[in-house]
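Hi L.,

As promised, RNase H type-1 domain-containing protein:
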Amino acid sequence: MEKLQLHKVSLKLVKEIKYLGVTLKNRLNWGKHIKDKCEKAIGTFWAYRRAFGNPWGPEPDKVRWLYDAIIKPRLTHGALVWGHKCELKTLTGALDRVQRLVMGGITGSMRTTPTVVMEKLLELPPLGKIIRSNACRTFCRIAESLNCSNFEDAALPERVMPLMEEIGCDRMANRIYFSKPFSIVILERKEWKTGSHELLENSVVWFTDGSKNENSVGAGAWEKGDAQEIVCSLDHHATVFQAEIRAITEAAKWLLKRGTGQRTVSFCSDSRAVLMALDSISISSKEVLRCRQALESLAKHNAVRLV
């Protein structure tokens, strides 16, 4: 057999190679990659474990931060190509062991405490489901711009694509906006108590909110003074963040329809995440983009601010 060459450089055939943090085997069974990631995650946990014990050391929220910010991203890296293997019982054991170690560090529980109980207490789904969820989000982002008909995990497109066709995907390619025609004021609770809310005087004031329960998602807006109310429902797959954004969008559209001009318009939202998303120069959400476009249209003839 002739040796393979690339740019006159001979290539050596190997059974295993690591590329971009993912261990590739010649049979693509991904078992080696998952076990290696789990061992490194456990090593990271025990390196930090020396700094705390059951009655002393960092608080539980710091251990949870370690898991969410360091361990979990390392485990889910590249999940789009290997996440489908998490359903195999031979590999779920290694993943469950990692999460159980972390949950024990957070709760300080006894060794005999059932894993399911700790997952319910900490509102943590099984790690295999977290990895699959990460793979689904990545797939949705890629499917917006690429043809994903040839995909390793055949079950993933079958589950995700009908949902995307039905309700669409909120993710989009990043758009950069270096300026905005409206202002955003993020006040602390103390500032509201000391009278900083006076900035709402002599302006059209709208209060917006979004909520979600087990069965439905809704958004609402209320205008101070005129007692105008706007209520709308969203698909049950929507998040509270999307509901909060939609409330501002609908209020801005209503003002545009009414022909509001030469006024100061203030939108009051209790979601800091929404205000920061609208204040960011980078937008990767269609819902945020629609809200920004509505605010920009309103700001052409009004002074618009979000508080």
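Confidence is low (pLDDT under 50) at residues 163-167.

Thanks again for sending the construct details.

K.
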